[in-house]
Specification:
With 131 residues, this protein is mainly α. It has one domain. The protein is 56% helix and 7% strand. It has six helices and three strands; from the N terminus they run αβαβααβαα. A three-stranded parallel beta sheet has the order 1-2-3. Strand 1, helix 2 and strand 2 form a beta-alpha-beta unit. Helix 2 runs parallel beside helix 4, helix 4 packs across helix 5 and helix 5 packs antiparallel against helix 6. The longest helix has 23 residues. The termini are far apart.
């Protein structure tokens, strides 16, 4: 929340901000991504240390931020194996959340696949101009 003033001051300057907020501040990052056109939320820090709660945290973020403003990262540091573990945990959490929404009839399978692709790679490719 302390970054709100900075985000407001940098709006329209041509630079994107990617917030690396961990739990429980993931809600603030998600809200800011929804308010400011140049602010994005990186999910790595929020999901890296939440363990079994990763799907719950991810669902909260998906309910607060536009899907095009969320970026996957492993959030891992140190051992290379942690990146693999984080990627696996992310895929499992995303599958649980989006799969439940599809089973509940809230989303189509096509929409879930599109949003999963956006968060997993497409948004970062766009924001970091990798394409």
């Amino acid at each position: 929340a302390a970054l709100r003033g900075f985000a407001a001051a940098t709006a329209g300057l041509g630079a994107d901000l990617v917030l690396l907020h961990g739990s429980p501040h993931h809600r603030t990052a998600a809200r800011m991504a929804g308010v400011f056109p140049h602010v994005y939320a990186d999910l790595g820090a929020a999901l890296a240390h939440t363990g079994a709660r990763a799907a719950d945290v991810l669902a909260e973020v998906l309910e607060l931020a536009p899907f095009g403003k969320l970026l996957y990262s492993s959030g891992a540091r140190g051992l290379p194996e942690l990146h693999v573990v984080a990627a696996s945990a992310f895929r499992a959490a995303l599958g649980r959340v989006l799969g439940a929404w599809v089973l509940d009839g809230a989303w189509s399978r096509t929409d879930a696949q599109r949003v999963a692709s956006m968060i997993a790679a497409d948004n970062a490719t766009r924001v970091y101009r990798l394409g």
